[in-house]
Design goal:
The protein is α+β, with helices and mostly antiparallel strands. The chain has one domain: Aminopeptidase, CATH 3.40.630.30. It has six helices and seven strands, in the order E-H-H-E-E-E-H-E-H-E-H-H-E. The protein has a seven-stranded mixed β-sheet with strand order 1-2-3-4-5-7-6, sandwiched between helices. The longest helix is centred in the middle third of the chain and has 15 residues. The chain is globular. The mean pLDDT is 90.
């Protein structure tokens, strides 16, 4: 695999990000309204991975970690999570919360712990992702920073 560039997403990346999220079975319908901080990993002009952080004061919702199938097992997911955690710390975030249906083991390896949905900060519970986009069966996890 040749060099992959990690950078903040731009408007030019929007359609590629939506396509990748849909390919990975992740919600994208609320991205414009939620306006999360999006990071992309690109090989040339192609977006091969993405992740987002929705800032909610002292807490943030980690969302939309998606890696194109041909780039899985390349550490891009870990690289994205590490970068988003770095950005969260720099912004003064004290806790990151996420919802997952398929990647609990991956996030456990990154230091996230399963928590009860009722223990999630109110700001996160009020997000569209938490209220309606992710099913109640999704595992809720958090990590203090």
């Amino acid at each position: 695999m040749s060099t992959v560039e990690l950078r903040t997403a731009t408007e030019v990346d929007a359609e590629s990000i939506r396509a990748l999220l849909e390919q990975c079975g992740l919600p994208s319908i609320d991205l414009a309204a939620a306006r999360p901080e999006l990071v992309v990993a690109c090989q040339g002009a192609q977006v091969v991975a993405t992740g987002a952080l929705q800032h909610l004061g002292g807490v943030a919702l980690l969302r939309s970690i998606a890696v194109a199938p041909t780039y899985r097992n390349s550490r891009l997911g870990r690289i994205l999570v590490t970068e988003l955690e770095r950005r969260a710390r720099a912004a003064g975030v004290k806790e990151i919360v996420l919802l997952t249906q398929t990647a609990a083991r991956f996030f456990q390896q990154q230091g996230y712990c399963t928590i009860d949905r009722n223990d999630v900060p109110q700001a996160v519970q009020a997000t569209e992702e938490f209220r309606s986009l992710c099913p109640d069966s999704a595992i809720c996890m958090s990590k203090p920073l």
